[in-house]
Design goal:
Elements (H helix, E strand, L loop, with lengths): L4 H4 L8 H6 L1 H45 L8 H51 L4 H33 L1 H7 L7 H14 L6 E2 L3 E2 L2 H22 L1
Antiparallel strand pairs: 1-2
Length: 231
């Protein structure tokens, strides 16, 4: 929508009229190329996050499956298997923290941008006199931001849910048939794996399904506040 605007709304794209008249097509070409580059960059960023989170979730699914299907027989190998499971769990958690550090600034910027844009655009649609074209443009823009945010919130929420299932997998394996050392150290392993692991943006905002819901709540609260102030 933004890239096609100069073709049907030439007079309001460039602020300086002399620049719009003399260098209009140069500016249009630059704007189009830059927009295409920006779209490719954003989609590549989204794809990298999705692939990384999906891979990590698959790793935790495999770990949970191996724990649940491990057969204890009372030998010393039972304790070695438990230690191996816990160490692998710690390794995967450290990898998750590295992913969080890489994406935390971008996630915070996207979350704040989505909330601000949803509030302002929906207020413009519902409370100000605008044309049908402007309303459609605002609706598509808000929808695109929400779709992009969902590509981060839902996979991150599924990953944290899979991490939390590890303690359940440890309890479901036949620990009662294991060695005495396994039965002694299993409660400590359960305690270590029951820590809640949240995917946070700069340590401020938890990126999960509820974060996506909070965007809608914040938007509705903002619209209600503005309506009451305008009365």
């Amino acid at each position: 929508m933004f890239m096609s605007r100069p073709f049907h709304d030439k007079g309001t794209v460039l602020t300086l009229q002399w620049f719009a008249e003399e260098y209009y097509y140069y500016a249009l070409s630059y704007q189009t190329v830059f927009a295409l580059f920006l779209v490719a960059l954003v989609m590549g960023f989204n794809g990298l996050f999705l692939l990384t989170i999906t891979n990590m979730r698959a790793q935790f699914i495999i770990l949970n499956w191996n724990i649940q299907n491990h057969k204890n027989n009372g030998s010393p190998n039972d304790m070695k298997a438990l230690i191996g499971f816990v160490n692998h769990h710690r390794f995967l958690l450290s990898y998750v923290r590295d992913i969080e550090k890489v994406f935390m600034i971008q996630l915070l910027a996207l979350y704040c941008l989505t909330i601000a844009s949803c509030c302002m655009e929906l207020y413009a649609i519902t409370e100000t006199p605008t044309t049908l074209t402007d309303k459609a443009r605002s609706f598509i823009y808000v929808t695109s931001l929400l779709v992009q945010l969902s590509m981060f919130c839902f996979p991150a929420g599924e990953l944290t849910s899979e991490i939390f299932l590890l303690s359940e997998s440890l309890y479901l394996m036949n620990w009662e048939d294991g060695s005495r050392a396994l039965q002694t150290w299993l409660p400590f392993a359960l305690h270590a794996t029951q820590r809640v692991v949240d995917f946070k943006a700069v340590g401020l905002i938890t990126i999960n399904k509820m974060a996506f819901v909070d965007v809608g709540k914040s938007t509705i609260s903002f619209l209600t506040l503005m309506r009451n102030m305008n009365r």
